[in-house]
Amino acid sequence: MDARESGAKKLAHLNIAELEQVILNQGMVLLRGFDPSSDEQMVAFAKKLGPLLAWDFGYVLDLKINQQPQNHIFSQGKVELHWDGAFAGATPRFNFFQCLQSSAMSGGGETTFVNTCRLLESCSSQQLQQYQDKVIRYFAEKKAHYGGAIEEPLISPHPATKRQRMRFIEPFNEDNMAVNPVETQVQGMSSSQGDAFLRELIAHLYDSDSFYAHQWTQGDYLLVDNHAMLHGRHRFQGEGLTRHLKRVHIL
Ligand SMILES: [Fe+2]
């Protein structure tokens, strides 16, 4: 949605029921051309879509690249595909981002997305058969604000739309081996069979038409259906990383 076309400059003027429907139908919505928001304004707007998930840092996460990161989301490396809240008690329905400063000059750092509902709807029956009934166990050490062990079916119904969606955390991320690696185990498979299955799945996710890499422009807002989408980040390139995002989790 472009504010320059709709005539609305303020997030507060958007029709929330309509916006929610678009997020659920499309997986994500980019809002461009709107006025910037303070943390308080972001929180106030997000609360119209639902209660917010409170982390130990509060509601608004500052995503700035850090020299000695505790978690690789603050590093320069690739972030594996995942959904937010996997290791938390509650899974947010929506991720709400605001871009305060882009890093388009240094390149890389695009936020990566896979619309897993669309992906599954375009799968061959052979692929679907492979994915059906798989259960994956994930383990990540809690270093920053998430970690633990969970077990999730690869395919499950979206809690709101009931479309089939995929829950997956991408292992084998070379950029994350030292900081916060994710270990996986596919139930009922040997570790070599499981790893081969996962590598094929990862290639499918990145190659599919449902994959999208978002290059941030200052002022962008993104609202993402966290139950339908997976997200990650391409590795940053070059020097002078200036990207600054804010993120709020809506329950
Ligand atoms: Fe995330």
From TrEMBL:
GO MF term list: 2-oxoglutarate-dependent dioxygenase activity
UniProt-listed Gene3D superfamilies: Clavaminate synthase-like
Domain TauD/TfdA-like: 15-248
Domain of life: Bacteria
Segments passing through the bilayer: none
Any Pfam family hit: TauD
Cofactor: Fe(2+)
UniProt keyword list: Oxidoreductase
Protein name, UniProt field: TauD/TfdA-like domain-containing protein
Species whose genome carries this gene: Pseudoalteromonas ruthenica
